[in-house]
Amino acid sequence: MAKSDKCFILHKSILLVVLLLLAGCTPVISRQLREQVRPDTTFKEILNAPERYQGQMVILSGIIIDAKNTKEGTLFEILQSPAGFRGEPKDTDKSEGRFLVHNDSYLDLNIYTKGRSVTVAGQIQGKRVLPLGETEYTYPLIHAKEIYLWPIIRRDHPYSYYSFERYYWWRGSLLHSRIIPKKSHATPKK
């Protein structure tokens, strides 16, 4: 094989890898909807005056708190969460509030369950005041154009990250028996 052929194959391979990497970094909401969003509008502003932004397209992310099917479609209550580059809710305890999302079609509530992460693109329809505990809460109401349900990432490992249990030499040490006592299967005496 000639040197120019090897360079050509190498350049094509590099281009393919770059394209695959870029494809993994694309946002989950369509470009058409993203172009309609005003990036300078914050969720805090929408929460404080939803009627002011009525008709405006927004992209919000968060965690599903509640979902129910109604005569009009599916209604979600979502705890807002800051979004990452692709629109995925960041794994953080920070939130600026809650919002409602109305979807015209009926979505399966066994899939769109409490605790799942979503990114929603839709138009602000105004507000809806509903009870939240013993108080009234004003929710911005979003009419969904696109909803992206993020896949569940399993983080249940047999050992925690800092566990010494996985090291065979640690199990038999005297220090190990003092820090992590053995579990007794004997029944307690009365």
Describe the structure.
The protein has a domain at 26-149: OB fold (Dihydrolipoamide Acetyltransferase, E2P) (Beta Barrel). 22% of the residues lie in helices and 31% in strands. The protein has helices spanning 3-23, 31-34, 43-48, 168-171, 174-179, and strands at 57-70, 73-80, 98-103, 117-132, 135-149. It is elongated. Residues 19-23 and 174-180 have low confidence and may be disordered.
Radius of gyration: 25 Å
CATH topology of the domain at 26-149: OB fold (Dihydrolipoamide Acetyltransferase, E2P)
> What percent of the residues sit in helical stretches (DSSP H or I)?
10-25%
Quaternary class: single chain
Number of strands: 5
Structural class: alpha+beta
Morphology call: elongated
Whole-number mean pLDDT? 81
What's the CATH C level of the domain at 26-149?
A: Mainly Beta
Strand content: 25-35%
The span between the termini is 84 Å
CATH architecture classification of the domain at 26-149: Beta Barrel
**Succession of helices and strands:** HHHEEEEEHH
The CATH superfamily name of the domain at 26-149 is Nucleic acid-binding proteins
Count of DSSP H/I helices: 5
Largest sheet: 5 strands, mixed, barrel
- Widest beta sheet: strand line-up: 1-2-3-5-4
